[in-house]
Amino acid sequence: MEKALLMMDYLNVTQIGDGSFSHKGDLAIDIAGKDSNIDYLKAPFTGIVRRIYSNVNAVWLESVDKVVYADGTIDYMTVMTLHNDDVSNLKVGNIIKQGEIYYKEGSTGYVTGNHIHLAVGKGKFKGNGWYENNYGNWCINNQIEVSKALFIPSNTKIINSGGLNWIREDEFIEENTYIEYKVVKGDRIFM
Ligand SMILES: [Zn+2]
């Protein structure tokens, strides 16, 4: 089973979820790469493009199978990304393999500076993918904290964690890997 990964060479969190700026009530984060140039985001899991909304070049990618979340949850996952300047490489129904470059930083939408707005929703794509909250911000359906969903690959350099409690891919110990032992006659059990 794939672990869901936040795959950029450099992680630079420029705004965290529920921030006071444009993320009020919204658990999405803004991420940039090494510098003000355009860096790329690789697909966090093998997924299918479910929707593209061209005003802000929003793309919803839904995992084709259940994936492992950074907090240990196992479920389908949908991610929504905004601000790429050109998404003509993507079509609804495309299958993107985990690790494939599919999205990049940009400044399309009401933003200044190249970045990616990244939101994670638990489960499969639902409805039209998002809803407007009380502050006028558009949130992905079933939104959850990004750092509880996506692992950071071991080779990603963290420039700014945003103060979030990221879990490295290699720190995760898979459950259900213990060896089952059948008690036989003569064993002594200490409780
Ligand atoms: Zn944002």
Give the secondary structure arrangement, pairings included.
Layout (H helix, E strand, L loop, with lengths): L9 E6 L13 E4 L7 E3 L4 E7 L4 E6 L3 E2 L5 E2 L1 E6 L12 E2 L4 E4 L11 E7 L7 E3 L5 E3 L2 E2 L1 H4 L7 E4 L31
Parallel strand pairs: 1-15
Antiparallel strand pairs: 1-2, 2-11, 3-10, 4-5, 4-9, 5-8, 6-7, 8-11, 11-14, 12-13
Bound molecules: zinc ion.
The site of zinc ion has 6 residues, from loops.
What is the element string, with H for helices and E for strands?
EEEEEEEEEEEEEEHE
CATH level-1 class? Mainly Beta
Mean pLDDT: 92
Number of helices: 1
- Which ranges are low-confidence, i.e. pLDDT below 50, for 5 or more consecutive residues? none
CATH topology (fold) name: Glucose Permease (Domain IIA)
- Total domains, how many? 1
Indicate the percent of residues in helices: under 10%
CATH homology group: Glucose Permease (Domain IIA)
Q: Which small compounds were modeled alongside the protein?
A: zinc ion
Largest sheet: 9 strands, mixed
Overall 3D shape: globular
Rg over alpha carbons: 18 Å
SS class: mainly beta
